[in-house]
User: What shape does this take?
Amino acid sequence: MTINEIRESGLLELYVIGDLEGEELRIVENALLEYPILKKDIREIEYALFKLADARAIEPHGAVKPLLMATVDYTERIKNGEPLCSPPLLNADSKVDDFQEWLERPDMISPTDFDAMYAKIIAHEPEKLTAIVWLRYGAPPEIHTVEYERFLIVEGTCEIIIDKEVNIMKPGDYLAIPLHVSHAVKVTSTIPCKIILQRVAA
Assistant: This one.
């Protein structure tokens, strides 16, 4: 193939995204050796794809990174021998004291300089995830379709807005979020709101 045929074939684009194999991959690799200027084309295609991806990027929900980091931390703790546990299921009769075992652990604290949200997973069981969550300002709106979210306030105060209903929450208060309904959290205290969070499979 000539250099122009290579450029017009679409093979360079497929090469950049890693979607070539067999004879087509061999053709591009040989062309890169025969026409070194094609390496510039490759860089330009990579840059164009990067710009396209950046322009169409979707901002993840604010809880994604903190919960991902909490999952990594929990996984490492389990690998290092932390025994599995099964905290009680949150309900209207739940008390902060029910979770004292975990709240008193020296490794279940937040750094003082965390950004907007920090989390430590207590347990990740097939039917539920239980975590301690600290919110400095609140949490943006979200909707759950496959799991119920439940809150037990430990420290600080907040408003949990379910659809348009504002629930004023203080330490010891419990709230369950229904499925398919938008909800958000706004911290109203001068200290971060510390919460026992449970996500229970529907």
In short: Residues 96 and 162 are 23 Å apart (CA to CA). The chain has two domains: 3-55, 64-201. The mean pLDDT is 94.
